[in-house]
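queue> holo job accepted (iron/sulfur cluster)
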Amino acid sequence: MPTEQLINELQSYGARLVDPKAGHESRRGGAGPSDHKAITIDGMTVMVPVHTAPAFESPYLVERPDAFGRSRISRDGVTLASVNFPTRPRFYDLNTADGVPYWKIAVLHSRDVLATTVLQSCIRYQSRTKTCQFCAIGQSLAAGRTIERKTPAQLAEVAKAAVDLDGVKHMVMTTGTPAGRERGAGILAESAAAVKAAVDLPIQGQCEPPDENGWFRRMKDAGIDALGMHLEVVTPDVRARIMPGKAQVSVERYFDAFTAAAPIFGRGQVSTYILAGLGDTSEVVLQTCERLIALGVYPFVVPFVPISGTPLESHPAPSPNFMHEILRPLATMLRAGGLNATDIKAGCGKCGACSALSTYEREAVA
Ligand code: SF4
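queue> job finished
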C-alpha cells in the first residue's frame, strides 16, 4: 500500500495499540488536534488517533514495540509496514525553577517539535453556544496535565532544555483567545522574545487575526518566524454551526490579515489550518486553498479528529478517499505555487504530522 494511502487510512480510522503505553505520552485534550500518538512510518512521523471512538474499532493494529521502539502495523493479520515510536523526551523529567514539571509547560509533538499553549483558556470556550465544537482546550487543564498561563521565563527555560537535551528543531506556540482585541498576539510576542533570548529556536505563533495588522511586524520583531491563523472551516453555515464564536470573525477578515502578514513573514511562512470532514466540500476547500496559495499562504489541510469529550466526539472522521480527493490536487497546486512544507521555518505545516499532505508533496515532487 502506498505510504500516503496508509497514512490517510490511519488518520481516518485510527489504530488499536496492543501496548497503549508504547512511545511517549499521547496527546489528550488541549488545543488543536488531540487524542493521538506519534508513530514513524517510512521516515515520516505522523499523529495517529488512538483514543477516539473510531480508533477503538480500527482495522489497524500496532504491535507491542521492542526495546528500541520498533514495531509493526497490520490489518487482518497481514503486516503492512514497520513503524517506530519516538521515545520519551528527556526534558520531561525536569521541573522549572518555580517547581512546575516541564511537561506541563510544553510537550513534544511528532519527534522534534516543542509545542505549548501559552494561555490554556479561551473567551470562546466558556459557553457551549460559543465554543468551537472540535476543541478540547479546557480538558487537559481540568485534568491537571497543564497550567493555565505559561510565563515567558518558564517557556524560555523549557525551550532551552528541549533543544539541549532532545534536539527539538522548532517550536509551536498557540494560545486560547484572551479577552483583549489583539487576540493573543501580545502574549505570543512576549513569549517568543523570552525564548529567543534563551535559545536559537525557530518559532511559529498561532492566534486569531488581531484587531490591527500592525501586530504582525511586532510579532515578527519579537522573534516569531512563522505565523498560523487558522480558518478551520470555511463555508458560512459550516462556520456558524461548528464554531459559532469564532465565526464572528469573518473569512474576509482572515484574508485581509493574510494579505497583510504574508509580506512581513515571507512567502510560505504564514499558514492556516483547514479541518477537512466537518461539512466543507472538497471543491470549496480546494478553491480556498487556491486563493491562499496565490497570497503565499500555506494551507495545511488536516483530517478532522473527533476528540473524546467534545461536542463532536461522535462526528465521523473524513474517509481516506475524501482526504485523497483534496490532498492530491492540493500537493500539485502547492508545487505550482512554489510553496513547500520543507521551506517553512517552524510550525504545523513544517511538522506535517497531523496530515498526509507532506507525503503527497513528496510524491508530487517525485
Ligand atoms: S502538525 Fe502541529 S499539531 Fe500536529 S503534531 Fe505537528 S506541531 Fe503538533
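queue> The longest strand covers residues 78-84.
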